[in-house]
Specification:
Distance between the termini of chain A: 40 Å
Helix content of chain B: under 10%
Radius of gyration of chain B: 13 Å
Largest interface: A-B, 23 and 24 residues
Order of helices and strands of chain B: EEEEEEEEEEE
Structural class of chain B: mainly beta
Oligomer: heterodimer
Order of helices and strands of chain A: EEEEEEEEEEE
Largest sheet of chain A: 6 strands, mixed
Number of helices of chain B: 0
Distance between the termini of chain B: 33 Å
Radius of gyration of chain A: 14 Å
Shape of chain A: globular
Number of strands of chain B: 11
Number of helices of chain A: 0
Strand content of chain A: over 45%
Chain lengths: 113, 113
């Protein structure tokens, strides 16, 4: 069983601040890493994917990957109340369950005005 | 139109009833998945299928069965529903490429009384 751990939260930040979400994973062979955003009662929506060490920026979102430390993070700059949601970290398996994704339990983020 | 659709979107049923949840996709993906989500437990994989002839159990397949009728259709059945199967159910699809990115349907909220 692959383990994906996220800081449990909830995380609360003021509008305009930087929100930092963290995730660690157990499987060294994982090659694809994802952040999904999920609003209450809605389906997970892909917001970022990252495959190489380093940073990947998309608008206000930056994903950071460190494969040596088995760590992936998501930074949300200039946080907005509309960013309030649960963020799910997911990693793929390139081993015995090739093609599957393993999800963390999510971190609930609240951005207050 | 949505790429991944699920029917019904909401369902209330009684203990012991047989129920089927359906998933259809127009993304042309070979791989399809069924997850359930319970508060605090994250997404848990029930079954997945990498093509029409390939069906695999996930972590929590007991009490569930699936049918892959075509590349575009993947159904989940509860043979005899019980109250602890009350949850939010998601279908997802992915392309058998390097990244394993998954795309989710809108979900079915199932209540078993």
């Amino acid at each position: 069983q692959k383990e994906v751990e996220q800081n449990s939260g909830p995380l609360s930040v003021p509008e305009g601040a930087i929100a930092s979400l963290n995730c660690t994973y157990s499987d060294r062979v994982s090659q694809s890493f994802f952040w999904y955003r999920q609003y209450s009662g809605k389906s997970p929506e892909l917001i970022m994917s990252i495959y190489s060490n380093g940073d990947k920026e998309d608008g206000r979102f930056t994903a950071q990957l460190n494969k040596a430390s088995q760590y992936v993070s998501l930074l949300i700059r200039d946080s907005q109340p509309s960013d309030s949601a649960t963020y799910l970290c997911a990693v793929n398996d390139r081993g015995s369950t090739l093609g599957r994704l393993y999800f963390g339990r999510g971190t609930q983020l609240t951005v207050w005005p | 139109d949505a790429d991944v659709t699920q029917t019904p979107r909401n369902r209330i049923t009684k203990t012991g009833k047989r129920i089927m949840l359906e998933c259809s996709q127009t993304k042309g993906h070979d791989r399809m998945y069924w997850y359930r989500q319970d508060p605090g437990l994250g997404l848990r994989l029930i079954y997945y299928s990498f093509d029409v002839k390939d069906i695999n159990k996930g972590e929590i397949s007991d009490g569930y069965s699936v049918s892959r009728q075509a590349q575009a259709k993947f159904s989940l059945s509860l043979e005899s529903a019980i109250p602890n199967q009350t949850a939010l159910y998601f279908c997802a699809t992915s392309d058998p490429g390097y990244t394993d990115t998954q795309y989710f349907g809108p979900g079915t909220r199932l209540t078993v009384l």
